[in-house]
Write a structure and sequence with these properties.
Helices cover about 30% and strands about 40% of the residues. By secondary structure, it is of the alpha+beta class. It has a single domain, classed as Alpha-Beta Complex (Aldehyde Oxidoreductase, domain 3), CATH 3.90.1170. Strands 1, 2, 3, 4, 5, 6, 7 and 8 form an eight-stranded mixed beta sheet that branches. Strand 5 and strand 6 form a beta hairpin.
Length: about 150
């Protein structure tokens, strides 16, 4: 398989439901796919010191983060029998209830797609230099710790 190019995995702001739906619809013509697995990360209204989180403001070392996304993507294609895979992460402000991470893997069989998405999400959370500042309703903020 030919090495793929580094792609920009970032989207400004929340990832819209229409974008996710369009991504899924584009795969209907790929008849060698038997399963899709999707992970959607959503911003929660956590409580911090008695204050409710209203949004997360995401930033990243974009070039380094895209390189890391690329490495993770290549490793997933090596580990799992995938037909295709897509990763998108938000930059900037994402309000509670909105989607900030979209991971989409397709394969001939569900187990491969499911295992690949679990691997991808776990690895993204630990290895990609993305930073989230939790912004509370009163506009105070704290740096988010990934869990």
């Amino acid at each position: 398989m030919e090495k793929s190019k580094v792609k920009n995995c970032f989207r400004e702001g929340a990832i819209a439901a229409t974008f996710i739906g369009d991504s899924i619809a584009k795969h209907q013509s790929k008849t060698n796919i038997g399963a899709h697995e999707i992970f959607l990360g959503q911003v929660r209204a956590d409580e911090i010191d008695g204050k409710t989180v209203a949004a997360i403001d995401y930033s990243a070392y974009e070039e380094m983060a895209n390189e890391k996304f690329h490495e993770i993507r290549e490793a997933a294609f090596e580990k799992f029998d995938l037909t295709c895979m897509h990763i998108y992460h938000s930059l900037g402000r994402v309000n509670t209830g909105e989607i900030c991470l979209f991971v989409f893997a397709s394969s001939k069989h569900r187990v491969e797609a499911r295992n690949a998405v679990a691997y991808l999400v776990d690895t993204i959370k630990t290895d990609v230099p993305i930073f989230g500042k939790e912004v509370c309703e009163d506009e105070t903020h704290t740096w988010k710790v990934n869990k």
